[in-house]
Amino acid sequence: MTVIEATDVGVKFRKYRSRRRRLRAWLLRRDERRMSEFWALRHVTFSVEEGEVLGVIGSNGAGKSTLLRVIAGIYRPDEGSIAVRGRVSPLLALGAGFRPDLTGRDNVYLNGVLLGLSRREIDARFDEIVDFAELGDFIDQPIRTYSSGMAARLGFAIATSLEPDILLIDEVLGVGDEHFRRKSTAKMREFMRKAKAIVLVTHSMDLVREVCTRALWLERGQIYKMGDPDEVVESYLAERKGASMVTEGAR
Description:
The protein has 251 residues and is an alpha/beta fold. It is built from 8 helices and 9 strands. α3 (104-114) crosses α4 and α4 packs across α5 (148-161). The mean pLDDT is 85.
């Protein structure tokens, strides 16, 4: 069954020449002439089936995070359409949605409610979340005292506790120690066995080769290549190596 189907998706943003003009346009609720538009995504078409792990790779600014936000429903396409069938749990940034002055415990409940869980459901999952995050007594300390790795572990534990049909992950598995990476990878494999779909944005080519069933390479908002993870990664690395050699030769 197809759980994500994107058809000719395009997303454009306005780019202001200065922060002052951006603020002025917002205050006046109107566009200005000294403003340009750019397409963060254009003509993006793909689908994801149940049981798939799709790895999304590309250079910085290629549109990877924008694509995840479209799937999550945060951005609406300016062109084309996207159909998402199933419960989505987005883990789009380190500690996404966390309130830094609240404790880890309070943030678990706050994020659980925002994700549609009742207090009783959060109570039933709470110990599992804390055990996975391995925070110990830090669960009762403010999030602002956490390291990025601790916040990542807690965020990942909350997102995966929902057992969503579709899990969206943006770079989170690239942080933390080796032990956490092994645990999170094992969790992703568990989702695969349950026929869940995962879309993973990462700069770790090893991770794409290890856990993904397909890879999608974005460049300048468009699909450059899509297919077998090993083949796509090899092409991507070869392209980057060639570009690096050209840059070095120009010096």
